[in-house]
Amino acid sequence: MSQTLLDKVWAAHTVRTLPNGATQLLIGTHLIHEVTSPQAFGMLRDLNLKVLYPSRTFATVDHIVPTDERAEPFSDDLADAMIKALRSNCAENGITFFDLPTGKQGIVHIVGPEQGITQPGTTIACGDSHTSTHGAFGAIAFGIGTSQVRDVLATQTMALHKPKVRRINVNGKLSPGVYAKDVILHIIRKLGVNGGLGYAYEYGGTTFDAFTQEERMTVCNMSIEGGARVGYVNPDETTFEYLKGRPYSPKGADWDAAVARWKATASDPDAKYDDIVTFDAAEISPTVTWGINPGQAIFIHEKVPFPNEVPEKDRSTAEEALAHMLLKSGNPIKGTKVDVAFLGSCTNGRLSDLQEVARYIKGRKVNKGVKAIVVPGSQGVASVAESMGLAEIFREAGFEWRGAGCSMCLGMNPDKLVGEQLCASSSNRNFKGRQGSPTGRTVLMSPLMVAAAALSGEISDAREVFGIK
Amino acid sequence: MALEKITQVGGRGVYVPGDDLDTDRIIPARFMKCITFDGLGEFAFYDARAFAKAEGQTHPLDDARFTGASILLSGSNFGCGSSREHAPQALYRFGIRAIIAESFAEIFFGNSITLGMPCVVMSGEDIRSVAKLIESDPAALLTLDLTEKKLSIADMDFPITIAPHAHEALVTGKWDAIADLLEGIDAVRTRAATLPYMAA
Ligand code: SF4
After folding, report:
1. Domain count of chain A?
2. Interface ipTM above 0.85
3. What is the C-alpha separation between B93 and B68, in angstroms, rounded?
4. Which of helix, strand or coil describes residue B98?
5. B80·A56 Cβ contact <8 A
């Protein structure tokens, strides 16, 4: 007793202790995509090794797929070579591939949950740092490098050291117009971009209890931006409700047995944590970033800080950020001109994100000076959104409605910022050059704040633009 | 798989100042369109270098005085951001064999150790002292000694720290876990059989 979910899942998946003291941890579910897997398959071939559990690896293609013209061959030869490599690696090894024609393709962190592959009490790894997203289901999910992708393919395990656990409580009700995205931006702002180093973040409290599964995913997604490789929420009825009936979810009697097991994996009420931090939901306002890491964030009504207002160790980064963002200390962030609005990514490219925005933008128009694009996180999200008429609402408002993928979250496909364009983005990283232009500028925010920026042509308070009280 | 025991890294140094140098900075995503890691070296810090050039400045990695340097020094939270192994691979292929920083992001750290590229921690003050020494004598040889846990340059020694498990892995030649993991395959199957979701 008095164990955390991490303790329980770790124990259930420990194969043995390695000579160097690391745990050989069984990875129940392995997700792969086209960018970080081809080199791993190459290493496997060099070592003459086979995939040990092909049925426990699932593949999709997300980072490089174009979101407009999707006929193959892609105009970009390298992108085309990458999708072909993934296709042949999957076929050769008997791995399920949610390829473009399947109607199930999408961002790996959206596809896993959507298919019911992501389940409580499991371990998940993927060669992508936002794998922490899957923790929203009470899974322990790690982002890994390519050599570890190789390790998981060959042995279904990897060598890991058990992280400490920090419990992050958020209690109370969020004000109208404040979203899960604001919660995680606020947490990172307060705990720092490396505050989570060596920790898994366990999110809880009444705010999380009330969150939908998709809101929990938004928060867990950005754990890594706070330095925590793993983030999770204990599974509950909301989780089970979400999973029920999904293609890979257990069925019939297996379902009941699974739910009983899942319930038992949640942290015990008297679980011991290495650290506990508590936030009050009522204190969180819509949050936007002003700098070049996700911790450089302020409430929409705050002013761009002066470097001497931030802790001394963050000062040089603050100066660099101001220079890159072409923002002036002491000026309000509100009113900053926006060139591009990007709605999508594994943080906020889900159906509920699109529904929430569509509800407010119906009948309104994107500002003439703004290029606004909506990139559904998966083909599944896209087709439901289309059948609900959301695509039409976005198009009528002047948004481009695109095919599923990572798109402008990282600019590995043709969707990129140009020059010093400033992008209001629902994604998770505002690093220099992240959106495809070395001098491009990214301001992270919630989907509704992106919509407010798109409509007004400047960084705005969505509550004012849409009359939310 | 017998791997080289890494106890010492010697070479010249190069200082790339800055905190939170993220993986997008180390290797911009657009250069990740590849199916092997070969040739990534030239793209290490690509945008930062191009930017410096455009401003009429020289990025340390392009500074002729530091050409051939194999020990990289930087600030805190080095390698934060994505899990892309392309980042340490690009540095390694550029010629870097060890990194010294005030702190490292976790995934980057693990990826680097798996390549046999030590990432060691030194105080900011010491890093800046070493940077000054390199600046005044770029030809000076640095010796990173993992056994003695120190960095030597000229007649001076600076203490370093490294996570014990990474230290052990490097000095015993077990920095790539695959061999150890493969030895446990029978135990893996036994463990997997206890988990209903893996049997399905
Ligand atoms: S949407 Fe962005 S953060 Fe998410 S997997 Fe794709 S590139 Fe990574």
Report:
1. 2
2. yes
3. 12
4. strand
5. no
